Amino acid sequence: MDCLFCKIVSAQIPANVIHKDALVTAFRDINPQAPTHILIVPNEHIGGAADLTPAHTPTLAALFAAASQLAAAKGLSGYRLVINQGAEAGQSVFHLHLHLLGGRRFAWPPG
Fold first, then answer.
1. Which CATH architecture has domain 4-102?
2. pTM higher than 0.90 for the full model?
3. 92 conformational bin, left if phi > 0, alpha if psi -120 to 50, beta if neither
4. All structural domains of the chain with their residue ranges
5. Given 56, 95, 97, 99, which residue is catalytic?
6. Which residues contact 57 (CB under 8 A, 6 or more apart)?
7. In whole angstroms, how far apart are CA 64 and each of 72, 86, 98?
8. What CA–CA distance (Å, rounded) separates 8 from 51?
9. Would you call 97 a catalytic residue per the annotation?
10. 14 forms bridges with which residues in the sheet?
């Protein structure tokens, strides 16, 4: 498979990995949009949110649990979690990923 995030998960491409367990891998974004910008990806290739099924429930729980643990470790009292679905929404790597953003105030609505 020619997926950037799959190659990071399998250590074929180096990344600043800060968390890895049986279901998810987290690493620093190379183009951060906030002082803390971490990507959390399933170790299994899932193209995006539209490809999720009930069978992915443990993986989704692991994504959000990792986000919570990483935010706490960074001392973030507030943070934003973002999943983009499709190119029109800004998804540039078609492997499901959760952005953990923090360390600054965010505006609403986004984008």
1. 2-Layer Sandwich (3.30)
2. yes
3. alpha
4. 4-102
5. 97
6. none
7. 12, 20, 8
8. 21
9. yes
10. none
